[in-house]
Write a structure and sequence with these properties.
- This protein is an alpha+beta fold and 214 residues long.
- It has one domain (3-212).
- 47% of the residues lie in helices and 10% in strands.
- It has four helices and four strands, in the order αββααββα.
- A four-stranded antiparallel β-sheet has the order 1-2-3-4.
- Helix 1 runs parallel beside helix 3 (89-115), helix 2 (61-84) packs antiparallel against helix 3 and helix 3 (89-115) packs antiparallel against helix 4 (176-198).
- The radius of gyration is 20 Å and the shape is globular.
């Protein structure tokens, strides 16, 4: 097995492990919408959504999960091809982060409804969700909610500003999987465009593919 294949597998498994450990800890240790302040600009804020990144929720869980599974299969095949072509280390790691992040949230969608009880709201003073036997949870297969917890309310816009005045800058709540997808995609795009920028125009007649990035 190629060294880069091993790197890809390790990155994917490590990200999924960290993501699921953090989610399990929050799910079984906090009530829904409970908040713990780490600093004034970093909080652990337990929320759940149907699976969209950064807490967005406007597509059905089952449809979104199926779409994500198809995307994962595509990226895995693409990554395997890039490894065979001896793509750069950076490209392999970035694609592995994207795959791992997507898999992390798919696990929530597919199985959390089956193996966890419902998380009660913080104001109910109930007890956190518990891990139960398969099929004894709050939902069915493909109906699980994704657990989010990282919240960075960096600052509030001044009240006098139109439209955004008084609102919090970057008020999205996300998880490790979301962060992996975002970081992998951003670094991949930046490295690709840096490569394009450094390449003389005379050599840009045929657009480069992502595997040549970095």
């Amino acid at each position: 097995m190629k060294k880069k294949s091993i790197i890809a597998i390790v990155v994917i498994l490590l990200v999924i492990l960290i993501d699921q450990v953090v989610k399990y800890t929050v799910k079984t240790g906090m009530l829904l919408h409970e908040q713990v302040s780490v600093t004034s600009w970093f909080k652990i804020f337990f929320t759940e959504n149907q699976g969209m990144a950064f807490g967005m929720d406007f597509v059905g869980t089952m449809l979104l999960t199926l779409f994500r599974v198809v995307a994962i299969v595509f990226f895995v095949i693409y990554l395997a091809r890039l490894v065979k072509r001896d793509a750069s280390f950076l490209t392999v790691v970035c694609l592995s982060l994207i795959i791992a992040g997507a898999l992390g949230n798919v696990i929530d969608n597919c199985f959390y409804g089956l193996i966890f009880t419902e998380s009660p709201e913080a104001f109910t003073f109930g007890t956190p969700a518990q891990l139960v036997g398969i099929g004894q949870g709050y939902g069915s297969f493909l109906s699980g909610k994704v657990v989010d917890m990282f919240y960075f309310p960096l600052w509030q816009w001044p009240e006098w500003m139109p439209l955004i005045g008084g609102h919090t800058f970057f008020n999205a709540v996300f998880n490790v999987a979301d962060a992996a997808i975002t970081c992998g995609a951003i670094v991949l795009l930046v490295s690709y465009y840096l490569k394009m920028w450094r390449t003389p125009k005379s050599k840009q007649s045929t657009p480069d593919t992502p595997e040549s990035a970095a």
